[in-house]
Design goal:
Elements (H helix, E strand, L loop, with lengths): L10 E8 L9 H10 L3 E9 L11 H13 L4 E4 L5 H11 L2 E3 L1 H12 L3 H15 L26 H36 L4 E6 L5 H9 L16 E7 L3 E7 L9 H6 L1 H8 L3 E7 L5 H14 L7 E6 L10 E4 L5 E5 L8 H12 L3 E8 L4 H9 L3 E6 L5 E8 H10 L4 H7 L1 E2 L1
Parallel strand pairs: 1-2, 1-3, 3-4, 5-7, 5-8, 8-9, 9-11, 12-15
Antiparallel strand pairs: 6-7, 10-11, 12-14, 13-14
């Protein structure tokens, strides 16, 4: 990494603001979970009521003095604000508290830095951190803001601050160039799946809604899943066979959160594009969460940012095991199409309903019928069996195979086209001669 991060575990004082614009309001419970996820040892949570933010400290000077006394009395290492601080506010508060000050964006960035596992994920986090830090470079360099002078110290006329900014710009350009290559590789892989007519389905949702647990249950994988915010950063793709539909590609993606920093959305664009290029989104929702409607709105807002708001969505209400008197079920809209599914990824109840609903939504053009294949199409017959599309097989008097099949029309067209036949003619005749 370009710079070192603290390893976490600091004694932290949390400061939560009330009285702000309702749209800008943050959840104090979620704030504490974020701090714990970052590895902080929470000393206290202080709620400050402030209707008009102060330009110098964000909060009033009297409350700043009160917090200063608490910081020294409790030997606090870090003060975290559940709000976005300007670079000058951050510097002013650090000067008073005589310890590190972090805002909500910096906290989320630190969590992302700890969770990133792949090379791509680390690059994305580093890019977001550098862009965030570039506006805060004044801190720590006040003694070097003059140009160097004196015998043996005369340089090219560039201050230390300017040198650091230039180095940051160079590093940011390097990372963006690498991520652009990653984006083109992902796009190439997606085009390959499109050519193979394999539908892609992405799990999206608020952080800690249970996406990775559901992903593991559906695909029998062992993706890291934990009861913490942002347990998953790096996207994972798995092939999944569904009855009545065939193969799909299922993607587990990073969770969303209130006011997800724009720098993170930009840095993770290559990853989030996996969702925006999907054929279907599974919006995983924590059914036990009291504020789930607000979380749904936040997820839809981020989907709008990445250009995925127009994609078909199936809502998956998860954590049914925490609710009473609610059974696994599929709820349908006025047209009879699946709209939401109620499941429990932890104990496996209702998982088959997810597959059924996905197959219905993606299998609008499902072919069900009997195909008559002459013996020279033995290879085609074997491919139908390999796909699991054959319901039964009989033979007529001339020795031709009568296959009762059920598979997506796109898959049927692809197989038949390989034999040099016109798919439409073949489907109408149900006979290959």
């Amino acid at each position: 990494m370009f710079f070192e991060r603290h390893g976490g575990g600091e004694r932290a004082l949390l400061v939560h603001l009330e009285g702000q614009n309702p749209e800008a309001r943050e959840d104090p419970q979620e704030f504490q979970e974020l701090a714990l996820s970052a590895g902080a040892d929470i000393v206290s949570l202080v709620t400050v009521t402030r209707h008009q933010p102060s330009a110098k400290y964000l909060i009033g000077s009297g409350k700043v003095e009160e917090l200063h006394d608490l910081v020294h009395a409790e030997q606090v290492d870090l003060v975290i604000f559940n709000h976005t601080l300007t670079p000058s506010q951050e510097r002013n508060l650090e000067r008073v508290f005589e310890c590190r000050v972090l805002d909500r964006t910096g906290l989320i960035l630190d969590i992302f830095a700890q969770r990133a596992r792949t090379h791509e994920g680390k690059l994305q986090v580093e890019l977001a951190q550098l862009e965030h830090m570039s506006t805060r470079l004044v801190r720590g360099w006040t003694h070097l803001e003059r140009q160097k002078g004196g015998i043996g110290l005369r340089g090219p006329g560039e201050t230390q601050l300017e040198t650091d900014r230039r180095l940051l710009r160079v590093r940011i350009r390097q990372i963006k160039s690498r991520l652009e290559k990653v984006r083109s590789q992902r796009e190439q892989a997606r085009r390959g799946r499109k050519r193979a007519d394999i539908p892609s389905v992405s799990l999206v949702g608020y952080t800690n809604a249970g996406k990775s647990t559901l992903f593991n249950a559906l695909t029998e994988s062992e993706v890291y899943a934990a009861d913490q915010l942002f347990a998953t950063l790096d996207p994972t793709l798995r092939r999944l066979e569904l009855n009545d539909l065939g193969p799909i590609v299922l993607a587990d993606t990073v969770g969303f959160i209130r006011h997800l920093p724009h720098k993170l959305v930009e840095a993770f664009r290559a990853t989030l594009e996996e969702s925006s290029n999907s054929d279907l989104l599974l919006h995983v929702i924590d059914a036990h969460e009291p504020e789930r409607m607000e979380q749904i709105e936040q997820v839809l807002a981020v989907l709008g940012e990445i250009g995925a708001e127009g994609l078909p969505i199936l809502e998956v209400y998860n954590k049914l095991d925490l609710l009473e008197d609610v059974e696994p079920q599929i709820q349908r809209n006025a047209d009879g199409k699946p709209e939401r599914v109620w499941v429990s990824a932890r104990d496996g109840r209702g998982l088959e309903l997810v597959g059924q609903a996905v197959a219905e939504l993606l299998g609008d053009d499902l072919f069900v019928g009997t195909l008559c294949l002459e013996q020279r199409f033995a290879r085609l017959r074997a491919q139908f069996f390999a796909l699991g599309a054959v319901q039964s097989e009989e033979h007529d008097e001339e020795g031709r195979s009568l296959l009762s099949v059920r598979l997506p029309m796109v898959e049927l067209n692809r197989l038949v086209s390989r034999e040099g036949m016109e798919p439409q003619v073949f489907v109408q005749q149900h006979t290959l001669q």
